[in-house]
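User: For a reading group we're discussing how well predicted structures match intuition. Take Lon protease. Before you show the prediction, I'll give you the sequence so everyone sees exactly what went in.
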Amino acid sequence: MQINDNKTLPAKLPVIVEDELFLYPFMITPLFLSDEENLRALDIALADETPVLIVPAKPQNDGARDFESVYDAGVIGTIMRRVPLPDGRVKILFQGMEKGRILHVINENPLEAMVDALHVVRPSQVKTDALIVVLREKVRELAQVSHFFPPDLLKTIEESAEAVRVCDLVSSALRLKKQIAYSFFIEENLEQRLLKLIDYVIEEIEANKLQKEIKNKVHSKIDKTNKEYFLKEQLKQIQAELGADSNRDEEIEEYRKKLESKKKFMGEDAYKEIKKQIDKLSRMHPDSADANTLQSYLDWVVEVPFENLAKKKSSIAEVSKHLNADHYSLEKPKERIEEYFALRELLELRGVSEKVNNGAILCFAGPPGVGKTSLANSIAKALKRELVRIALGGLEDVNELRGHRRTYIGAMPGRIVQGLIEAKQMNPVVVLDEIDKVGRSYRGDPTAVLLEILDPEQNNKFRDYYLNFNIDLSKVIFIATANDVSQIPAPLRDRMEFIQLSSYTPQEKFEIAKKYLVPQELKKHGLKPSDVSINKEALELIISDYTRESGVRNLRRRIADILRKVAKNILTKNSEGKVTITAKNLKEFLEKKVYEIEQADKKDQIGQVNGLAWTSVGGDVLRIEAIRIQGKGVMQITGQLGDVMKESAQIAFSVVKVLIDNKKLKVPMAIVPKFEDDKRKLEASDVYRRYDLHVHVPEGATPKDGPSAGITMVTAIASILTDIKVRHDVAMTGEITLSGKVLPIGGLKEKLIAAHKAGIKTALIPRKNYERDLNDIPDEVKKDINIIAVDTIEDVLKNALVK
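Assistant: Thanks. Here is the predicted 3D structure of Lon protease, as structure tokens, for the group to look at:
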């Protein structure tokens, strides 16, 4: 369609709104119309064979089709072609002719308006030409730093003689924003339009130069990053072809996620060390030996539970409840434990730092099987914390506790850190089992590490060699156990507070078996109380004749032996009814007796004395024997005795000699050997000059040492040299001095319990032990044994020798 020659402006024209493009008069442009108002305006133009005005929509237009939402200027042109599309739209080919401006609105639906042409005010030709030259120069400069001007368009701009057309070509190429394009479009003063356009092109030149400079600066970095990316991708493909692990990047990312989740709970040194090792692993070849070592390290460290702390506060009521529920007797140990946690609870209630009470490290000391570890277990249950057991028996390598340096093959964290990882808590209850059996070798002294671990001033920054950063152990509750306190090195002993657990009496063992062991073992063996019962006499017989211990560990084993046979009988013999274990049929279920302590002799004998000894499994009665052999006053000592015990024998011999010389011991002269060539009168002292003595402590295969056999050896030597019998029902313990004083000893409770089991009726003990330790002795022992305090050796002999 062409504009009729007689069509003059201003004129009434239909108006079509274009949302996307800003059209210029020189353009022949395809447009797609779908809006109803636009389609009706198109129909009017085609029906009346009139031109149309195409105006751009304002940027804020939300799809409205009214004169408020469009610009008041556009392009007047004709519709060259109209093609309906299958989707309902209409495609038109529009040819722009000249710029037009809306004078006033005629119709809103469809849009029609009175339109007039925009009239250009032209400057002088000289000025126009000068401005065009400058504009073209700037356009060429902009074309060198941008992609706005294709070669064909640049050629058209250079060859065009019409200044308005040049302005329109440049404006269309610059992809201006609608508001800026509109301001250039309606500018009727050509000189002003050229000046504005030149200024805008100059701004674009500067902006593009700056962008190019920035791009050049980052280009090398981008190239390097891209190069690394492509190389990594190629490496992945190569590794995939070779069968390498394709999940390595995912694993490294998983390490990073775990590290970030723990960051706020760990120290800065720990975070830096782990992050450094993750970065190092990401740069390593996965098949290198160092990569495997480093990955093992990261597998350990990301599992350290920095973020996990048991939240339950100390409660004396809970601790007391669990201790009493799990343990019979042990009143003093339980009382001391309750005091320890009462202090912790009080400090927490009053807002005092928990570190105030960190100085006390409890150590449960006593024979095996008396409940040292189970007490720690009860404490852990009461505090709702995990229990970690670290066996120190025979530990010689210091790196077992502190960790191995990663330079060694098979390196791993120390047992302390492994315990934290196993417990998944940073404040568990850690039991240092058998701390008295820590060894020392060329690989270091573990005691030195234990000193740091148990020192509240140092353990908040405990460094594990494997981790290579500090770990805070100040919130851990450490509890040690030991059989023999004297074997613990003095500096380590100074760090701990000892709670002594003594041997159980037969009555206590009976109650423990009845209330705890039998019900627990029934449950373990799948039996019910209706299936089997062990009567009182049988249980007492098991305790007295089938076990040899201070605790109840072997007693539990004997009960288990019985219940296994019962379970077998139920399955193989289809026996019905309840099985009752009595003293009469006990031998059917247990094979042989193990007599714990030999009963006291029934008659008095010369040179045989009942001594009381402490062993790692409780007390025992040792019968020290002495004989005299005609000789020259030499004493022989046997029984695999230690140096201290040998010295006690020498002291005892000297003490007896003094007693004989001072006539405090009467020697029957009839027993003194008389030599034929000896014409002088015999004296009492000849008894120890003309006899050799042999002192023996039975069970020679068992090493024995300690000073507490002093008075026993004096009594044995005195008996054999005076030919006076020793009371069979008397036992004794005490250290002797050269002046004859009796000194205190340890392990009195265990010794008196052993005497009670052996049927001893009288026990001689040092005066200080009588005053200090008698309250610890069970009532049933004090009831059956006459306990006599002695101060001197004369007191001992007066009560031990038969008058």
